[in-house]
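> example.struct
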């Protein structure tokens, strides 16, 4: 990274200057210089303004916004698993759909870090041939981070605890960070699905919902990351519940430890890690609706990105890929249910209230809160399968 190279040069100058500084001047000089170098290490590398300006230039044919989509895990480390469904498989499904949507826009130069045949050839070559450079990069960044924490120039903050990444996974993630920096990637999107430790892993857990992780506010790429995260979060939250895991329930979570988004200040571009829900949730485990759910999660992410760059531009006939749909059977609340929303797979209090509001709006009596014949007929009238949303 350019700012680290500059810092290294200045440290060399500092070492030479110390040789000429008197003992009485050394302490004050040293303190001021450390402040200066720390300010370089944490200089803003991406902001709302830099991203907007790059998009405006792309619209004029002056380059393109570089986006890297990283479907979480791979064939070696497949991530979490529930009842035979592996995280690495569904992150790739979502990544491919998001790639399709973004690549259709001439403003963007989009790349998938891995496909069904393995890692992107350029990234794979970089990881294989640049091992010594990547390891030195990580060593240097960790040393600088530790130094500035010790000096009190940055505060160490652990908000949500994470499992330690296996060494091979950590190497790949740091390598992707370095590759992204050297290739000027503007936005990095890491795709994941969540889980948590519990005594019986074969049964669904008690937590649900999505969350968006971003670099902690002191990091160089924090500002650009947050503005995009807020836009994506707003889109996802319209149809999906945000996480109710303690400390993650703020929705957009700042983090210093996740390598993917720049642990030890290792990413220049805007970086987000999106946990799109818990792998055991009904809309992911139900094979009938999983494909549509994943398609819609990608679509909401795409709309969130476009909202940021185009200032809330509307896209398509419908604002969800879950429509159009043909309602053929009555839908009702079977009893006490978990937290629910339109797309959670559960029919609980939230859905019941939404159905009643729909019935009230269209004068459907009685307002039962379940979708019977009259309600289904109105839904099929409003969202007929003959009308297709425009991607």
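> example.seq
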């Amino acid at each position: 990274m350019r700012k680290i190279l500059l810092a290294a040069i200045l440290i060399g100058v500092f070492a030479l200057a110390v040789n000429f500084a008197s003992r009485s001047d050394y302490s004050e000089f040293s303190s001021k210089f450390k402040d200066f170098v720390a300010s370089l290490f944490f200089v803003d590398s991406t902001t709302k303004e830099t991203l907007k300006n790059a998009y405006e230039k792309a619209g004029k044919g002056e380059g393109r916004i570089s986006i890297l989509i990283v479907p979480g895990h791979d064939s070696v480390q497949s991530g979490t698993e529930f009842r035979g469904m592996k995280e690495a498989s569904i992150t790739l499904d979502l990544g491919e759909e998001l790639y399709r949507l973004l690549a259709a826009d001439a403003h963007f130069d989009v790349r998938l870090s891995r496909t069904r045949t393995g890692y992107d050839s350029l990234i794979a070559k970089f990881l294989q041939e640049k091992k010594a450079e990547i390891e030195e990069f990580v060593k240097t960044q960790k040393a600088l981070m530790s130094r500035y924490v010790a000096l009190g120039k940055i505060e160490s903050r652990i908000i949500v605890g994470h499992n330690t990444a296996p060494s091979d996974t950590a190497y790949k993630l740091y390598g992707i960070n370095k590759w992204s920096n050297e290739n000027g990637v503007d936005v990095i999107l890491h795709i994941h699905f969540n889980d948590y430790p519990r005594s019986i892993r074969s049964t669904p857990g008690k937590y649900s919902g999505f969350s968006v992780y971003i670099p902690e506010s002191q990091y160089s790429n924090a500002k650009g990351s947050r503005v995009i995260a807020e836009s994506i979060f707003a889109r996802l939250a319209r149809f999906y519940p945000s996480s109710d895991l303690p400390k993650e329930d703020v929705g957009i979570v700042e983090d210093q430890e996740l390598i993917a988004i720049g642990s030890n200040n290792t990413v220049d571009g805007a970086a987000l890690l999106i946990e799109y829900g818990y792998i055991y949730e009904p809309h992911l485990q139900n094979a009938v609706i999983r494909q549509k759910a994943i398609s819609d999660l990608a679509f909401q992410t795409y709309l969130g990105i476009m909202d940021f760059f185009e200032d809330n531009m509307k896209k398509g006939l419908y604002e969800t890929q879950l429509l159009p749909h043909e309602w053929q059977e009555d839908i009702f609340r079977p009893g006490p249910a978990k937290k629910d929303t339109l797309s959670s797979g559960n029919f609980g209090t939230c859905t019941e209230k939404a159905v009643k509001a729909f019935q009230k709006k269209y004068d459907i009596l009685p307002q039962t809160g379940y979708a019977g014949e009259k309600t289904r007929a109105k839904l099929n009238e409003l969202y007929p399968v003959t009308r297709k949303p425009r991607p």
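> remarks
Residues 4-23 have pLDDT under 50 and may be disordered.
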